[in-house]
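Researcher: We're teaching a course module on how sequence relates to structure. For the next exercise, students receive a sequence and then see the predicted structure as tokens, so they can try to spot secondary structure elements on their own. Here is the exercise chain.
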Amino acid sequence: MRFALLFVATVMPFGAVVAQESQSTSVQPRQAHVVTPDHLNWGPAPAILPAGARLAVLEGDPSKAGPFTMRLDMPAGYRIPPHFHQADEHVTVISGAFQVGMGETFDEGKLTTLAPGAFGVIPPGVRHFARANKATVIQLHGVGPWGLTYVNPADRPNTGSR
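Model: And here is the predicted structure for the students to work with:
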């Protein structure tokens, strides 16, 4: 019995070291990632959003699990109908004037204008809507997959009215 306890006491720490070494060698180290505004790769916004906006992904893949950062460039008058998200939505206004309102119907009287530098977090399930009253860029970040669900399914682009 003493021999068995001595053996376990001797072998167990060695096993932990081996496991730690194999774990550390299988994990790829993260690298610094810097994107300057003149090197953003803009493309059309995903079809889940109304037509007319552009999107640039700065980090990660918003369609997959994990952290992401992206920017949405909206023309003046761009509107996003009432919707909600499955995860927190973090928004920072980069330029322009982003207007956000809470509720299940688009109500201009409920819009709050956010100036450049403003930041907000909208929890999962909170119904909200948005408008850019002039050309506006916002930055969205969070943990994916990112998506949105329209309160009124007819508001979804390509499936109903806009």
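Model: If you want an answer key for the exercise: Helices lie at 2-26. Residues 37-155 form a domain with the Jelly Rolls fold (CATH 2.60.120.10).
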